[in-house]
Amino acid sequence: MPTDFHVIGSGLAGTLMALYLAQNHYQVKLYERRPDMRRVTLPAGRSINLALSARGLHALEEVGLKAKVLQQALPMRGRMLHPQHGDTLTFQAYGQPHEYINSISRSYLNTVLLDAAEAAGVDIHFHQRCVGFDFERHQAHMEGPEGPYTLADAPIIGADGAGSALRQALTQRVRVNYHQDYLAHGYKELTIPPDAQGNFQMEPEALHIWPRESFMLIALPNPDKTFTCTLFLPFEGDISFAHLTTESAITAFMETYFHDVPALAPDYVQEFLSNPTGVLSTLRCDPWHVQDQLLLIGDAAHAIVPFFGQGMNAAFEDCTLLMQALKHHTQPGARQGIATAFENFYTQRKPDAEAIADMALENFIEMRDTVADPTFLLHKKVATELERRYPGQFASRYNLVSFQRVPYTEAYARGRQQKALLQELCAGLSHPDQVPAQVDWQHAEALIKQYFAKAPLRS
Ligand code: FAD
Predict the structure, then answer these.
(1) How confident is the model over 46-100, as pLDDT tens digits?
(2) Cβ-based neighbours of 269, under 8 Å, separated by 6 or more
(3) Which entry of 5, 247, 301, 447 is 20 to 30 Å from 197 by CA?
(4) Average pLDDT estimate for 361-390
């Protein structure tokens, strides 16, 4: 059987894309530079667990894996805020009681996808590294244990992640725009183990945040009753990774800013010294494809900072939309229509990738800073009440991004309008406790009509 597509990278996006294609009767070969993660223990690398929400769940449902994945997921119903001083934790729900995001293990999710892809007939090759692409000869350059070789007989879908070799080849062409904006912050992962009885040491149904204005710590629960914590901190400056190189500096830092953590994470100093410090960046590439030769998806095309919990969700949504475009324009076994499908997918998706990249950067400010700000809390409480009172008419930006599948551009535009609406509605109020009693709900209804009547919510 001739190959319809070569997919490079068996991470989250590449494996899901290969599975989608195989389920739709396309012949797919999948290449991965690492060994098979199901057979060898690989270093966990970055983000041991991930927040999975509506867009990712929809894709998993389409390939028949949603229920299986959710078996190992933990619901996170809101943010649990840990103050710098004192022990009073504050819970902020993400939405209505039925609305939550899911903490899922990266390796479990990748394993489930690989098993399903293999079962659907995807031909998977490990230890195969892509090293470049020759656009004159229409071929990808690969290296495996047997030496170098080329892939030239079918279009390439590049899902080789943020460090993509295929994107690097693409951006060396003329008229390809490319920017990589590094964040001044890096990240480091730490672990909170179970207690002596084997139970969670903190509330498991929450994403814990220690917001400290210019930096923050977060923690997501795992099924083994541990939490994976991620510290986001500047690389340089007064309070930065640059100064945290000795046991005493790390201990003093944690005790000053995260006073409840040392008792919860007894090995934090050792982990701090031995775990790597990761970099974070936003990648903007334009275009993502060359005719029907090559198309980038997922992080390879549009890696974003992790503060909206959307990188994987957006990568999964890429797969859903690309599959739709391919089904519309192509047939298994034929090359015709692929260039149109790639072009239509890119044109539709690029503005949404830009929108979620910008929202992810904005959410960093919200998470580390404004979640502890009374005006933010007031607006959040009014927004949650508006969602409850006017379902289908009002949904917060967080809700539109995480619990619905409206295009990211629409969520971004509505978020800006909502900000203006909330400012108008909250004029004269100063504290969340004034909600709902002191809010003029008739005025609220009129404002919702005024702002959103011409554009009802769509999903
Ligand atoms: P990857 O998962 O990076 O997969 C790329 C694959 O390609 C890998 O298997 C790699 O080995 C392989 N590969 C690379 N180069 C080559 C090559 N040259 N040849 C062959 N194979 C190659 N997203 C969320 O939705 N929710 C979250 O909560 C969340 N949290 C995050 C926290 C952190 C700290 C970070 C850094 C990211 C987070 N993300 C989150 C983003 C998410 O991890 C990525 O968006 C997602 O992994 C993208 O999937 P991908 O398949 O495009 O890339």
Answers:
(1) 678 999 999 999 999 999 999 999 999 999 999 999 999 999 999 989 988 899 9
(2) 247, 250, 251
(3) 247
(4) 87
What is the CA(428)–ligand 1 centre distance, in A? 45
The predicted pLDDT at position 321 comes to 98
Q: Which atom of ligand 1 is nearest to the CA of 50?
A: 28
The answer to whether 160 and 17 are in contact (CB under 8 A) is no
Q: Check whether 289 has a pLDDT greater than 90.
A: yes
Ligand 1 geometric centre to CA of 241 (Å): 24
Which candidate, 97, 49, 100, places its Cα nearest to that of 76?
100
**pLDDT at residue 41 is higher than 70:** yes
**Closest residue CA from atom 41 of ligand 1:** 311
Q: Which atom of ligand 1 is nearest to the CA of 311?
A: 45
Query: 207: CA distance to ligand 1 center in Å?
Result: 21
DSSP notation for 363-421: HHHHHHTGGG-HHHHHHHHHHHHHHHHSTTT---HHHHHHT--S-HHHHHHHHHHHHHH
- Quote the ligand 1 centre to 140 CA distance (angstroms): 21
Peptide bond into 223 cis (omega under 30): no
End-to-end CA distance of the chain: 39
Please check the confidence at residue 348 and state whether its pLDDT lies above 90. Answer: yes
| Atom nearest to 310 CA in ligand 1 | 25
pLDDT tens-digit profile of 100-121? 999 999 999 999 999 999 999 9
Measured CA distances, 341 to 13, 356, 396 (Å): 18, 22, 33
Ligand 1 mutation target, pool 6, 8, 12, most atoms within 8 A of CB? 12
317/450 Cα distance (integer angstroms) = 32
CA 250-253-259 angle, 5° bins? 115
Q: CB count, 10 Å around CB of 450?
A: 12
H-assigned helices in 12-154: 12-23, 54-62, 66-71, 106-119
The residues lining ligand 1, judged by C-beta closer than 6 Å to any ligand atom, are: 8-14, 31-34, 46-47, 50-51, 129-130, 159-161, 163, 165, 187, 230, 278, 298-300, 306, 309-313, 315
- For 206-226, how does the pLDDT look when each residue is reduced to its tens digit (9 = 90+)? 999 999 999 999 999 999 999
Which pLDDT belongs to residue 393? 87
